[in-house]
Amino acid sequence: TCAQAEWRRGELPPGALGWRLLGEVQAISEPTFAAGAADRVGPARSVDVAVSLPNGRVLAGTVGGVYGDVVARTVYSTLAGKHRLRAWVQLLALAASDTASHPGHSWRAATVGRAGTKARRSVLTAPPAVAALPLLTWLADLHAWGCCEPLPLPLGASHTYAERRELGESEPDARDAADRAWADREADDSYHRIVWGEAYPFRALLAAPPVPAEQFSEVGRAETSRFGVLARQLWSPLLAAEEIA
Q1: Taking the CB of residue 237, how many other CB atoms lie within 10 A of it?
Q2: Side-chain half-sphere of 136: how many Cα atoms within 13 Å?
Q3: SS3 state of residue 1
Q4: What are the backbone angles phi and psi of residue 120, rounded to the nearest 5°?
Q5: 3-state secondary structure 23-68
Q6: What mean pLDDT is predicted for residues 143-149?
């Protein structure tokens, strides 16, 4: 079994202490793995995608862990924004790829992770190809912009901001919630300290005004800061396509 294989690796504490630790891990990992079992029907396969973007670039790669029309993934860690964004990009790539190569698919991405001692499942439904292509193009542009300069787009704070705005909150109220998320989880992140410096205030991330070239959607054009534009355009389409259980 997996438990016996883990024990034989020799990295657990000796004796009863090791077995107790292994039991604690099993108590969390087994329900999490079981929660994703319904998504893993049949053999897994990999799907090659190649998407021609409007700016002339070609996005090519392989999406693994595909079961039928579902991109399924289970992680032991807490289900976080990075896991959901990974699934979202893969889903958009599948949806925007040549329909002649993948006809008749209704793509979904199911990602299961932890929420405390329980399992949490994110299910994303792909938009039509005509809607997926501009979203994927903007994400490719976002990657290019991020390779040129640090973007005011911390993952947790931007997710909190976009989620609050999607619920109808005003910019000031959503910013307050994002400020708390920044202070609680991200301000002390070692990579953020390298990029922004020690004790970098959230209000400084709000200082940059919108960049017109980065605004491609109505939600983005409604924002008054660059942070708000990037946060809404990154997260709002995902949130609209997602069900969390």
Answers
A1: 23
A2: 30
A3: coil
A4: -130, 135
A5: HHHHHHHHHHHHHCHHHCCCCCEEEEEEEECCCCCEEEEEEEEEEC
A6: 96
Given this model, what pLDDT does residue 103 score?
A: 62
C-alpha Rg value of the chain to the nearest Å: 20
Q: Where along the chain do its domains lie?
A: 2-35, 38-141, 150-240
Token output for 9: 């690796």
Task: Tell me the CA distances in angstroms from 43 to 24, 69, 71, 123, one per residue in order.
Answer: 30, 12, 12, 20
> Do you know the residue count of the chain?
245
Task: Compute the distance between CA of residue 78 and CA of residue 76 in angstroms, rounded to an integer.
Answer: 7
> Which pLDDT band, with edges at 50, 70 and 90, does 8 fall under?
confident
The C-alpha atoms of residue 173 and residue 116 are separated, in whole angstroms, by 27
